[in-house]
Design brief:
Layout: H1 2-20, E1 25-40, E2 47-52, E3 57-61, H2 64-71, E4 77-88, E5 91-101
Parallel strand pairs: 3-5
Antiparallel strand pairs: 1-2, 1-4, 2-3, 4-5
Length: 104
């Protein structure tokens, strides 16, 4: 009887709950943002960020190659392409996949 209860009620409810629970990650097709690259936070916990023309600031997650490029272009206007936006307590974090430096 207990196995039958588990299979017919508990297991489906558990799977349904797991499938319907909200995620903090929002997946998107590649999106574009243009803004000024900056470093925010205090050492040793600094993070890369981009500030758009409307004043909105997003933290940046990226691979090491893109990170070094952005660090060397702080204060420059940059076009960033990202494929993921995560909403975290510290703010929105975009996963940057490609960069185009617009200002020299």
């Amino acid at each position: 009887m207990n196995k039958r209860l588990l299979i017919t009620f508990v297991l489906p409810v558990t799977l349904l709950h797991a499938g319907c629970s909200s995620s903090r990650t929002v997946f998107r097709v590649p999106q574009r943002i243009v803004g000024e690259i900056m470093v925010v936070g205090n050492e040793p916990f600094t993070k890369l960020a981009v500030r758009a023309d409307d004043g909105k600031m997003d933290l940046i997650s990226c691979n090491e190659e893109i990170r070094q490029l952005l660090l060397s272009h702080q204060g420059k206007i940059t076009e960033l392409f990202y494929d993921e936006l995560r909403r975290e307590k510290s703010g929105d974090v975009i996963n940057v996949i490609r960069v185009n430096i617009l200002s020299k």
